[in-house]
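Bench log. Compound arrived from synthesis this morning; before running ITC I wanted a structural hypothesis for how NAP sits in the protein. Inputs:
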Amino acid sequence: MTTELEIGLYIFMLAGFLGYHIITRVPPLLHTPLMSATNAIAGISLVGSLVVAGADYGALSTMLGFIAVTCSTTNVVGGFLITDRMLSMFKRSEEQTAQRRKVPFGRVLVTLIVLGAGVMALLYWSGQRGGVAEWIVHPRLHAETLKYSYIVSAALFILGLKGLSSPKYARKGMQAAAFGMLMAVVGTLFHPEIVTYKWIILGFIIGSVVGGTMGLRIPMTAVPQRTALSHSLGALAACLVGISEYFRHEGVLSPVVMTPLGFEVVVGGLTFTGSLMAAAKLQELLPGHPITYKGQNLLNFSLLAVIVGSLIYLVIAPTTAVVFQVMVALSFVFGLLLVIPIGAADMPVVIALLNSYGGLADASMGFVLMNKIQIITGSLDGTSGFLLSLLMCRAMNRSVVNVLFGAFGKVAKEKSDQEAEAKGTVRSIFPEEVTALLDDVRSVIIVPGYGMAVAQAQHGVAELAKLLMQRGINVKYAIHPVAGRMPGHMNVLLAEANVPYDQLYAMEQINPYFPEADIALVVGANDVTNPAAKNDRNSPLYGMPILEVDRAKSIIVLKRSLRPGFAGVDNDLYYDPKCMMLFGDAKESLNKLFAALKS
Ligand code: NAP
């Protein structure tokens, strides 16, 4: 006879394969929205949290459930809002001109939340009086409601992710996924074990305010740290629900339950602290460089061995609460130690990996509670995060092991300072001279990079491009898959500046155009243009596919100095006789260029 566990495992595997096929079809253009979308969907830990917060499992469980509801609601509301904000920016040229009036998704979401809160208030009020709620929450009715709402939600989540395979359908897809989340949540409110809505309502209110503020207010340049923070909250929710389940049963759990529960708590715990550390590094609250010390990897592996050992021990002797507590504490510490040696610029890979861990923690929660929707979304999220991290590593020509344990950027930066002095001369240029050069060109390729994000120069870039186009110059944007610090980072920033996505060319599409380009205008990009990646076997960048800027007729680079980029490697491009450096902050340089061109 097929057991619940077997069914769960089948569902987990099939959802993983389905996720793989759907997510490989998401174009690099939409990789940043994909990250926040899966992050929002991972907020499905909310359904497990609701039951713990609302059921009569004891004071500890209720408190942990309340915190978990707050964290997951923040994730869901913030994740869907910011994804929609990003997707609403992606427009084709013709859509830019024909602006249609649309109801903002934020308003729709807020209305839905208010409606949901109203339903709950009614349930709570009538439950107290033995009124409508008793009729609505008839045991047979709520079992059916739960079952069917989860099935519909799962279908809507998959449709939502499928929509991300094209910017045209992405927004509608994510709206369907948000509706799916609402269905799963409303269905869970009818869960037979929920006896009070007090803590649930409070958690919803706090989570919606925090998530809503994060989703609507955070600037696009801070998307990486928001995503990391959101992962940490989702993982904390999974971890707390696991802790609550353990203490509720006083550790009397079969190996079939103890194994996923231990996994949920460990992975949730390390993802929580690891993601917090990643967010702090990206926000520059902590030093961004890799922090390394002697015996670091040995310490980390020993710690991991103790955690795994504790988990195995608990599967055999689950009632040993001390071992459980030690295991939880060590998981939190392990998350911190895992991320400390990784540089801030590698954080996107780490965030994608942590996203995947968060998905696994969610799926484990699904196994503990035997909740199929959590198994499905956890598996989708796990696959998406893992695939994205692999894609990023491939685009950088590095392995995941190198990212996690290589302390990349530390040694290379020290070496590069000496190398830079030994190089030849570079030509610098002033904005007025650039305008003279632009007078008789026919095609310009703009190459944005991380410096554009730092300077927040995307609007300046778009304004300049518009002006050039008005003068009959053909302008294209060249987008490297790992330009910036997030996959698809440049696409989102340029979309924010109203650049239609049909003007953005992926690396493979644009490279053949460089020899025809009169000018390649490099705005704050460095590593992704470095010819050493093709020519210098000793370079850390060797083998990484690059934008072949060096093949353009002339090159103008906007950056502040000759300092290297993320890889810490000097760029030979700047010593090319065709290359001219316009030194200064990219935003200021673009303003000067724009003013000079206008006059
Ligand atoms: P980059 O190589 O890091 O170079 C950025 C350049 O921007 C710097 O050299 C800096 O030079 C310049 N800059 C900084 N602030 C500026 C400002 N205010 N105005 C003008 N210029 C400014 O960037 P990239 O070419 O975009 O390459 C991305 C790198 O990140 C790659 O090595 C990639 O492998 C790595 N990475 C990317 C991802 C991802 O998902 N996108 C993930 C992990 C790692 P100055 O200091 O001289 O101004």
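What the model suggests: The chain has 25 helices and seven strands. The chain has a mean pLDDT of 86.
ITC booked for Thursday regardless.
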